[in-house]
Amino acid sequence: xxxxxxxxxxxxxxxxxxxxxxxxxxxxxxxxxxxxxxxxxxxxxxxxxxxxxxxxxxxxxxxxxxxxxxxxxxxxxxxxxxxxxxxxxxxxxxxxxxxxxxxxxxxxxxxxxxxxxxxxxxxxxxxxxxxxxxxxxxxxxxxxxxxxxxxxxxxxxxxxxxxxxxxxxxxxxxxxxxxxxxxxxxxxxxxxxxxxxxxxxxxxxxxxxxxxxxxxxxxxxxxxxxxxxxxxxxxxxxxxxxxxxxxxxxxxxxxxxxxxxxxxxxxxxxxxxxxxxxxxxxxxxxxxxxxxxxxxxxxxxxxxxxxxxxxxxxxxxxxxxxxxxxxxxxxxxxxxxxxxxxxxxxxxxxxxxxxxxxxxxxxxxxxxxxxxxxxxxxxxxxxxxxxxxxxxxxxxxxxxxxxxxxxxxxxxxxxxxxxxxxxxxxxxxxxxxxxxxxxxxxxxxxxxxxxxxxxxxxxxxxxxxxxxxxxxxxxxxxxxxxxxxxxxxxxxxxxxxxxxxxxxxxxxxxxxxxxxxxxxxxxxxxxxxxxxxxxxxxxxxxxxxxxxxxxxxxxxxxxxxxxxxxxxxxxxxxxxxxxxxxxxxxxxxxxxxxxxxxxxxxxxxxxxxxxxxxxxxxxxxxxxxxxxxxxxxxxxxxxxxxxxxxxxxxxxxxxxxxxxxxxxxxxxxxxxxxxxxxxxxxxxxxxxxxxxxxxxxxxxxxxxxxxxxxxxxxxxxxxxxxxxxxxxxxxxxxxxxxxxxxxxxxxxxxxxxxxxxxxxxxxxxxxxxxxxxxxxxxxxxxxxxxxxxxxxxxxxxxxxxxxxxxxxxxxxxxxxxxxxxxxxxxxxxxxxxxxxxxxxxxxxxxxxxxxxxxxxxxxxxxxxxxxxxxxxxxxxxxxxxxxxxxxxxxxxxxxxxxxxxxxxxxxxxxxxxxxxxxxxxxxxxxxxxxxxxxxxxxxxxxxxxxxxxxxxxxxxxxxxxxxxxxxxxxxxxxxxxxxxxxxxxxxxxxxxxxxxxxxxxxxxxxxxxxxxxxxxxxxxxxxxxxxxxxxxxxxxxxxxxxxxxxxxxxxxxxxxxxxxxxxxxxxxxxxxxxxxxxxxxxxxxxxxxxxxxxxxxxxxxxxxxxxxxxxxxxxxxxxxxxxxxxxxxxxxxxxxxxxxxxxxxxxxxxxxxxxxxxxxxxxxxxxxxxxxxxxxxxxxxxxxxxxxxxxxxxxxxxxxxxxxxxxxxxxxxxxxxxxxxxxxxxxxxxxxxxxxxxxxxxxxxxxxxxxxxxxxxxxxxxxxxxxxxxxxxxxxxxxxxxxxxxxxxxxxxxxxxxxxxxxxxxxxxxxxxxxxxxxxxxxxxxxxxxxxxxxxxxxxxxxxxxxxxxxxxxxxxxxxxxxxxxxxxxxxxxxxxxxxxxxxxxxxxxxxxxxxxxxxxxxxxxxxxxxxxxxxxxxxxxxxxxxxxxxxxxxxxxxxxxxxxxxxxxxxxxxxxxxxxxxxxxxxxxxxxxxxxxxxxxxxxxxxxxxxxxxxxxxxxxxxxxxxxxxxxxxxxxxxxxxxxxxxxxxxxxxxxxxxxxxxxxxxxxxxxxxxxxxxxxxxxxxxxxxxxxxxxxxxxxxxxxxxxxxxxxxxxxxxxxxxxxxxxxxxxxxxxxxxxxxxxxxxxxxxxxxxxxxxxxxxxxxxxxxxxxxxxxxx
Length: 1660
Known about the structure:
Number of helices: 39
Mean pLDDT: 76
Oligomer: single chain
Helix content: 25-40%
Radius of gyration: 50 Å
Distance between the termini: 111 Å
Largest sheet: 19 strands, antiparallel
Number of strands: 64
Strand content: 15-25%
Low-confidence stretches: 1-16, 229-264, 271-362, 373-514, 640-659, 1034-1038, 1288-1292, 1456-1469
Shape: extended
């Protein structure tokens, strides 16, 4: 009955007949005559399960056999020829179980099949037959369905256990399901039998590891809750209950005040009536009180009638809270308390009844009706003795009632006042009497009485000794039973322990503690009948729901087994705990009381690793002196009297309560001598009077190697546990540890203890999992051994332990520890001496050093064991390879740890010989000595004659001491050079004949001189190896022994300089900071980025604290030689942000400065040129607060030179500035076209001669003074123009632009930055190949540094990484490739050309958006675009020198005469003309279009208004009248229109029916950006028009303008294009000059003519 899941049996390693051999015998002690019967089957047996008189076998291949008394089939099958269960063939069974008289099997899919006796429902509700089936003859599927989830789901089962009248299943979610009859189910119900499996709610949310069933009790091994959550465990539950009426004050107190050691939830005494076999359907209610310290009212089933208190639905909210704080101390029970001389138990005392006053029953009536209900249960008894029931306790007697020996009154009254006693004495039931109401009724009355008297119950003496409080509070808290919430479990509310534990345990479930290793943090829970003490709670009461056995918490139980009336638990330390019936000595000890777990008495040196329990015997497998396991037996010895007469003798006495006490049995487990002949035993199994073992023959040494490994590991774990108990535990808890060890050593001792505990825990888990592995060795794959699956974990734990031990040793901790251990242990020294495995314990004195180093030898044992296992496999198998690899890993670690041990020893000796105040400074726990120069073997080059230099090389630093006298450990000064930043270079012998070694450090370098070449080589090798080790095997690409030139390390600078006191972490090259890293200064400055030759160089991010504003400046961008240099973004603490170019730490070149959001006083943006941190050159300044925009020249941060200013009120100024003021001649135009041309002396202040022109053409000429906005003083001449002079407007508009900075001279800084990115000093000056390489490098680094690029972005960058063919002459064939390359380059700002386009768009929008969208700026805006094109084209021509000059012709490729061309680019047939607008406008204009088009619209506003007015009016007419109005000849009028392919005649009322396709085509002009695209739309419109006219006319028709114009006007009118004037002006300004006079030029002229015509069309 192992507690691990079977994996499907698969043959592995050796062949079947030598594995899984089954031996069976009747258990009657180790007498000589006893001969186990060998069962011969064709396949290996994987598992055996024994019932009372039958057994079930599982063989390889998943076949199941039965033997024995198969009562459900009326067969008796001899064990020698078991019967194959045919109906299970093909089901691949992986597990079998046998109950008293029924069987179970578990398939690989997790399905359960049950057969056998079903009187109590223990076979479940099978598919066949009715509920009344007393027996199930064939295996039938029992489905386990979780109805709490929606939709209900079938639960997968992984383990199964069977008792006499119940069955338990463990799901793959580690939850428990039960069915059958009796309190041993642990279910919240009082109607038995339970045919459908139900979840044991009390353990829901806990991780159940294994289950075992006795005759009428159940055991579960449960993983403990994590200790750190003690407090949280109860919180959700308390909160929930605090809000409910059931939660009493006293209960709340009890949770916090009652010492948990005396906390024993109430047991229930089952009366004869309740325990006797009633018929399954009429069985009375079995449960009275909830365990778990809660009242019955808080039971999960209280809403569903499971508790007598709540049968009246009204009373549910007013229940009594009956909480019995029975003081039961689990650890060691005091025998005197429990047993009188005659052996009958003394009266059990139950402490302090506590009842809740606030929830009392409202009146006596209610109480009366309740009591009536309680007594009204059917109490018929019906004796049905099962055939052949030879159990020492027959199955139908009232085994769990204590009536015979303990009057019920005693149970309740020993600790109460006399009044209560007097009331209850009359009810003391006579032995065996059937009182008309169950005990529960008495308890209710008592409880009410107690409440009236307000007895809040003081703690009483208990069954056990209160003084034994060994369990720590933590352990107690951890195992409080999870308490279900109110109401029926079917309400789909999780049980109360779920909020606390479900989340955690479920999360922890997949990884068995420690990632796949079995957990040792376990608890044992028990429930069911307890008359023999088999529940282990210190009493003989039954438990209706699972309750934790406190004394086993923390004992690392790894397996539980249940006999009929006794229980066993096996711990990881190979100890067996037993409790329950000991009539035949089956507990293996004679300790009392037997109601709590006690250790079995094992002989010295025996380590038990498997247990099983039968009806009245126990069988154990243990490690003996040799590798082969031995069998130990506890129980009755063979007696001369025949078995038959023994049986009849028992059946006569079967009505007795107590089982028959065996006449002779041993006090301790005895060896069964025949076990040695069976081979290597892997599993034991017991049931009824029989026992069985499974054994394997040792083929090729495989089995013995596995057994040897497991045995060694168990022995090792027992040794580690003893060390913890004897040495480390007492020392850690001792008060005087710190004073006697000293501060550093105490800390090291504690970390040594912790790593010892971690090692111990790992070994415990490992030994446990090896024991599990042995149970099913033929089904398991050797590669699943933890040594192979968890190699890294093992190596880490051993390394950690070794280094903790070495550190403690180096600091000299063992000397004082030895003293401390002598004081602390005293008499136990001898016991400790026995643990000394080595022979180094001189004169009985314990050598702690060798004792604590002993665990390291286990690594060598691992590699030996793995080597033995590997020898069993072929060299090419995976098993061999993984075993071999692990073997070498463990062996190499073993050797390296031995080296580390030696290093620690030599270092300790070094400190011992060089002890002194000076050297103590250098003594660190992790530091080990490598070599030192006390013999004057090494000195400093050019050292003085009398100076003494002593060099000590540690594993982490080189120490140079001066004025040293090594023999006296004295030196005046010392310097420590960390090895992480130390470079070693042997100097080749020069003429001077020195044997020199050059040492380079970040801040200094020096040369050492050795006395001999051998010394030099020794030091060079030692230094290099030490550096190599510190770097974890060297830096990048270093060969072993040669320490890496480039590496990553941390260092704190000490010397003067920029990096003084700064801490650096990052890359180095030969002693200089080089590569990526982070530098942090003490004042808060940090720099993260690239370094080169010891300085910041490349891209980096820097934070500079600003103490005044208490905020940091930050910079992201490029650096050179330790200064900000290149393009970057600087955020000032004041909130200002500068983004642009820097040179030597100053703003220089193109840049944009915005005042930031924080500054509320003024908000502004400047974009333009900077020289040495000042605005100088052309720039645009947008003063957002004042609503002014300045576009012009600057000098030293002041406006100086030609400029334009526009304001938000539409005032436009152009002129000259001096020293930040308007000064000199200028032109000022207001929004209503009033213009002033003259001299200015200050901003908006006029002073001097000038001419003021009014909008209507009037003119004022003379001397002006004053401010424009407030009023002008004038001395001058007023002129009114003659009527024949309407030219003034034109004159005004012509004057604009005379003071403006020429477009070609603007934004030179932007183009210069682009040139510099291409590697040119000045425009056009530089190497073309360098430019292309720069582009490729920029793109590649950007790709590397931006991991989160989208797929399309990275694709574009990938294309751009390739350098295109740029040297060859450009022909029509490859011209397209250049165009495509430019389009891609402009898609990403990472490309210099893309950056240029993006920046140009930025500056353009900065200039002409917002206040800058003033119609007077249109001319400048257009010129600026044209200037961009010219500059841009010069860069493109630099990159592609084959391109001709602007307007030049591209020749055809010499080979082919055909030309690939776009229409807009052709002037003549077969020739491609390249001009910058055709090539570059498509890249630029779409992005500049919105501000530019807005200016066009503003310029054409008045004309547009006229045009739109005409459009709206003329469009009111139907088609034919409009055509005739426009004078279109009737031959061009369409007669038919086509609607969805259907022809319809055009009548006089038709509207929008003519030339529809031409109209729709023309409308697309608004969706295009470039002039060439707009011209194409016009061309298409003409083509559509011609297509529609053609059917009406002759084929050789040609347009004449007289025909065409009216028709085209019609199309333009119907197209209703907004801002057509702006479109026309834009095309006119920016169209290619080479298409101006061709066909397209003509078509455009036609459109323009239409626009003008419509504008002036009379609407009459």
